[in-house]
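Priority: low. Protein: DMT family transporter. Input follows.
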Amino acid sequence: MPDIPVKYWIMVATLGFVWGSTFLLTELAIEDLSPLWLATSRICLGSILLTLFWGLRGFKLFPEESAWGRMTFVAIFSSVVPFFLIGWGQQYVTSGFAGISMAAIALMILPLAHVFLPDEKMNLRKVFGFVVGFIGVAFLMGGDVLASSGSSMETWGRFSLLGATACYAVCSIVLRKMPAADPVGLSAVLLLIGAAVILPIALIVEGLPPAIPQDTLIVIAVLGLIPTAAANLLRVRVIREAGSTFMSLVNYQVPVWSVVMGALILGEPLPATMLLALLLILSGVAVSQYGALKRMFTRG
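Result:
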C-alpha cells in the first residue's frame, strides 16, 4: 500500500464532519421541500459554485483522453440518485438505520476494490479492521440500529438508503479508474451533468418548487456550498489520489458526527456506549490502515 500523506487524513476527517452534519440539515430542509427538489437544489447550487471556481483555473479537465460515459454514470449515481434516495428514505427510517447504512459503504467497497483495483487488494488485517469499525458504529447507534420507525413505508425507506449506499460504493470504484484529470474540473463537470439530469426531472414530476421560508433557504445554501460543492471536490481528490478503500474510512465517522451534532444542536441524548463505540471505530481504522499510519509516523 502506498504512503498516505497527512493532507489526505485531514481531508477524510473534514469530510466525516461535513457529511455527518448533513443528516441534520436534511431533516430540517425536508420539512419545507420535497426530497426531489432538495436534491435538485443541492446539485444545481453546488454545480454553479464549482463551475465558477473551475473557470478561475482556466476550465482545465482531461490532459489526454476523455471519459464522458463514465463521468455521466458517476454524476448520476454519486449525486442525483443517492441524494434523492437518502432524502426520501430518511422520511421513513430511524436515524440509527440511516447511520449504519452509510457505514456499510466501507464494507461494500472492500470486495469491489479487491476485484477491480489491483493496488487496493483485500487482506485479513484490512477486513478485520473494517469489521471492527462497523461494530463500533453499531454500538454507537445502540438499539436504534434495527429499531422500527413504525412507518408503513419503512421497508421501502430502508431499501432506499441501502440503494444510496450501493451507489456510493460502485461510483467510488468507477471514479478511481478514470483517466488523469484536473480535480476541480472533474468535480465541476460531475455536478453539471447531475444538474442537467435532475432539474428537468424535478420540473416534470413536481413542477416549480413551492415558496420556501428564509431559514430553509439558508439551510439549502449551506447544503449546496459545503456538503455538495466543497465536499465533492475533496471526495474526488481523495479517491483519485489516495484510493477508494482509504476514502471509505469517511463512512465510519459520519454516524459519529451525526450523533454528536444531534446532541449539540437538537439536545438529543448521547448514547452511553459512545466512548466504547469511538474506541472500536478508531481501532478499526488503525488496524485497517496500520501500514500507512506506521510509515507516516516513522517518516515524520
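Residues 214-242 form the longest helix (29 residues). The chain has one domain: 6-299.
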